[in-house]
């Protein structure tokens, strides 16, 4: 399950809350585990049942058949019961997943919960989910509870009608010895013991099956991006990236990227700018093949990235996300995350390269300091420096970076700027740029607006064009307060939006 979850595409995680995934991985797996215990227990019950039936048939087959005539109705009732009970057991699994999902969400976001004073509202919602869980359990208990009396009733009929009445009549008529009848009564009591057990286990098995169904629902999911059967290993690359007529959508019919054509030379530093929702993150995640283009192709050093293995592609690029995720463990472990074989010296070198060494040695235990989950015991800037070190230790040819927009102090900003220059040096880099200096220093700036590349050039070229970039630049860096009217770009006129973006299509008038 863990292995499979690690392979699934980001889109699965976009639509499935973490708590619900955890619920399937833990609570459902635990429930399924009972199946295996049940199988072992059932084995001895089935064996004794077979032994007893054989003995009964040997002693008196006619009386044995009369007593066993309750078995077909028992199966019929179990089949009928199972239809309803299963629905009820599934309801429990879904309800507990909702409870776990809500629980996880509120604990992870506890700071926001407290700052927005949502505790009471959240508790009320959590109560509702718990009530649903309780009701689902009550319903399932009623089903399980109903089964036992039904079985007991059938046993009573077999004892009363089979042994006492039919057996008594046979003994009275001399067709059966009284001693055999007594032996039969004892066997039949032992015969029903495993039947009782098996029906109870059947009920538990049904619960476990409901959990099993949910586990296989996940295991059966195919990663949206998987290696082509003939995929090649990507040889060592120079770092050239080419987008050819690339279109992409998350939801069919709603293109997020339209007709992107772009060539990035090895070693080139490219900045992507554009208003929020323009498609910047989408564009860069396509290079790392988190999803496949819906039209066109992306080439790295002339290889269509769909025809090479994901591991060989990912092994030659690093991605630094806007909110770097650090893992619990030591500082060194986190830097080594991209290259577990890296020596201590290489870890220090990587940290020096990005300018993280100084703050690390000032931590209580230097490189052996333990980080909390997500690195929350470090400042945002420090976390980012560590994520840079983690990226460069693998010595990737391509580096993709989503610059943090978080408010960091000028000192840290300077530190990060310097680190950034060293990180990008000599590699092909694509930076979703928010900082002035990154944009200015880039070899090429790409302006995205509503999924279209509307401009491309250096800072000075784009400024002198007086188009979208100039406007965006002025708005983003406070040179003007509000864009107005329309903007000319590549011969088209676009309506300028209040957030600094542009309308998707050229304005008619
Ligand atoms: N998983 C998703 N499912 C559906 N639509 C998505 C998904 N992720 C992004 N989008 C949509 O795709 C468009 C582009 O999003 P993207 O994150 O690439 O923008 P962006 O330019 O990086 O924005 P920002 O600067 O705010 O991070 C947006 O309209 C967004 O709503």
Automatic annotation (TrEMBL):
Q: Record's InterPro entries?
A: AAA+_ATPase (IPR003593), ABC1_TM_dom (IPR011527), ABC1_TM_sf (IPR036640), ABC_transporter-like_ATP-bd (IPR003439), ABC_transporter-like_CS (IPR017871), P-loop_NTPase (IPR027417), Type_1_exporter (IPR039421)
The UniProt entry, under SUPFAM superfamilies, shows: ABC transporter transmembrane region, P-loop containing nucleoside triphosphate hydrolases
Give the UniProt keywords, A-Z. Answer: ATP-binding, Membrane, Nucleotide-binding, Transmembrane, Transmembrane helix, Transport
Give the record's GO CC terms: membrane
Principal location class: membrane
Where in or outside the cell?
Membrane
Give the protein name, as stated in the record. Answer: Uncharacterized ABC transporter ATP-binding protein TM_0288
Protein species of origin? Geodia barretti
User: Upper taxonomic classification of the species?
Assistant: Eukaryota, Metazoa, Porifera, Demospongiae, Heteroscleromorpha
